[in-house]
Design a protein that fits this description.
- This protein has 1 helix and no strands.
- It has 121 residues and is mainly α.
Length: 121
């Protein structure tokens, strides 16, 4: 009977040792997982920082491009207005020249008719 109890005690000790070994192995595995998580968090933090920096840079570039576009648009509009003013001035000059040409033609015609009338008389 004593041998049986000793065998059970030895078996219980072996089970206890196996459980402790498994617990230690599990603890080591969990520590490694925690270490990996910390490492991944550090890496992800760096990635996020890099992406935030890139985003800020891209926003700045976009803002600069928009400002350049606005300035170009304003300049184009000013040039267009200036060209429209020049065109109106040229049209006025043309109309004036046409009117003067008509008046000169009418005056020439009148002078020619007066000359022909004077020659007839």
């Amino acid at each position: 009977m004593l041998k049986l109890l000793n065998a059970q005690v030895d078996e219980a000790r072996a089970d206890k040792s196996a459980i402790w070994e498994q617990t230690r192995a599990d603890a080591r595995a969990m520590a490694q997982v925690a270490k990996n998580i910390e490492s991944n968090q550090g890496m992800l933090s760096k990635v996020v920082s890099t992406l935030e920096t890139q985003l800020a840079t891209l926003r700045q570039e976009k803002d600069q491009a928009l400002e350049t576009m606005r300035n170009d648009k304003r300049m184009w509009e000013r040039q267009q207005q200036q060209q429209e003013r020049q065109l109106k001035d040229l049209e006025k000059q043309r109309d004036k020249a046409v009117q003067e040409a008509k008046e000169a033609s009418a005056a020439r015609k009148q002078a020619q008719e007066a000359l022909e009338a004077a020659r007839r008389s």
